[in-house]
Amino acid sequence: MSKKIAVxxxxxxxxxxxxxxxxxxxxxxxxxxxxxxDDASVIIVNTCAFIESARAEAVDTILEMARKKKGxxxxxxxxxxxxxxYSAELLKELYEVDAFLGVxxxxxxxxxxEEANDEKPVFIGGRDRVFDQKxxxxxxxxxxxxxxxxxxxxxxxxxxxxxxxxKYRSRTKESIISEAAHLAxxxxxxxxxxxxxxxxxGKDIYGKYALVDLIxxxxxxxxxxxxxxxxxxxxxSDELLxxxxxxxxxxxxxxxxxxxxxxxxxxxxxxxxxxxxxxRLVEETKRRGIAVRTTFMVGFPTETExxxxxxxxxxxxxxxxxVGIFAYSTEEDTPSAKLxxxxxxxxxxKRVNALGKLQLDNVRKRNASMIGKVEQVLYEDxxxxxxxxxxxxQQNAPDIDSVVYFTADFVDVGSVYKxxxxxxxxxxxxxxxxxxxxx
Length: 439
What we know:
- The chain has helices spanning 13-28, 52-66, 81-93, 109-115, 161-165, 173-185, 203-206, 211-218, 238-246, 263-268, 275-288, 305-318, 345-370; strands at residues 4-9, 32-33, 42-47, 75-80, 99-101, 122-124, 143-147, 149-150, 169-170, 190-194, 225-228, 250-255, 291-298, 322-327, 374-383, 388-392, 404-407, 416-425, 428-436.
- The chain is α/β, with parallel strands linked by helices.
- Helix 4 links the parallel strand 5 (99-101) and strand 6 (122-124).
- The longest helix is centred in the last third of the chain and has 26 residues, at 345-370.
- It is globular and about 65 Å long.
C-alpha cells in the first residue's frame, strides 16, 4: 500500500548518499515522498553515530519525530549508523520506534515498512551491501556527491567507522562511471567523489590503487569539476597531485584529513603519516596551486601543551586554505578510549578556540591579499539579508568551506562567472561580477 513518507537525513555527505538511495527505493516502491512531517504517515530518520554529539543529535531527532505519532504518523523507522552499531540497546530503549535498518540494507526499506507493527520493533542489518545506482539527488541540481567505496580498513584508534561500516569495499569503475554519466545527463556540473578513504579506491578489487585511472575516465564526461574528498595523507601520491593540477576537469582542491602534526600523537592515533610527510604534502600542493582542506583533532588522550603547540606551529606556518577543528570525543570500544591521561573538557575547548583563532588570522591575511584579483566563481544561491549572490571558487567545497558574496545584474545557478574581489568578511570573500566564463 502506498504511504506518504518524510525523511530526515543526519550526518555527513556519505550518509546523504545513503538517504538518496533510500528515497529511490521508496519511490520505486510506489510511496510518495513529502517534506511535510505533519502530513506523513511514515517518518524515517537516517542517523549518524560517528561521535557522541552525532548520537545525541540522532536521539533528539528521533524523539522529536516520535511526537508526530500523536498526529498522522503511523510508523517511525530509524536507519543508518546508529542502529547498525547499537541495535540491541535501541530495541530495548527506544520503544517509540517501530523498526530499525542498518547501513547495508537500504534496499529493504519498503519491505520493512510493511513488516513494522506496534507490537514489537524489528531490526534488519547485514554486512553484504549491494551498490545500486538508483537515487534521488537531494543537493542543488548543479552538484552531487558520488560514492566510490564503503567501509574502512585504516583503524584509526579514535574511530568507530570500521565497526559500523565494515571493511573497505570499492565499487567497480563501470558502476561509478555509469552513475556519474547519469548525473551529468541530469545537469549535474560538479561531481564530488567521497568514501571513508577515496585514495584507497580500487586496491581491494583491482590489486592496485586506481583513483587516478578513475579520475581520467570521469573527466571525459560533460561536467565542470570533479572534487576529491577524504584522501589519506600516506596515499596522496605525486601522480595524483599531478593529475589534479593538470586536468582541467578536476577542481584544484583536495581534502586530506591530517588530524594532528605531532609524531607521538599521530602514532597513538594509528595514523600512517608523520610530520615530515605532512610538511612535504603542504609544499607539493602549494607548488601545484592546489588548495587543501583538512581537519585537526585536539585534546586526544595524553596530548600535552607542548604537543598542542607543535600543532599550532604547523597550522600557523602552513597557511592551509580550509581547516576544520574538533575536540576529541571518547568512543567506547575504541583503543584510544583506554588511553590515559585524558585531557579535560575545559582544556579541549580552549585548544579548539586557540587553533581556530590561529586559522582565522591566516585566512584574513590571505583574503586581504585577494583584493583586486579576479576569481572563477560558481553561482549557487542568494543571501537576502546581504542582498547579494553567493558562490564558490574551485578552492571551496559546498556546505563546509568559505563562500564568495558578490553583486551582479543577472546570474544563472550553476554557471561560472569572473568575480573581482573587492573585500572580505573573516572567512568569506566579497566581489562583483565582471564577466562570464565560457562553461
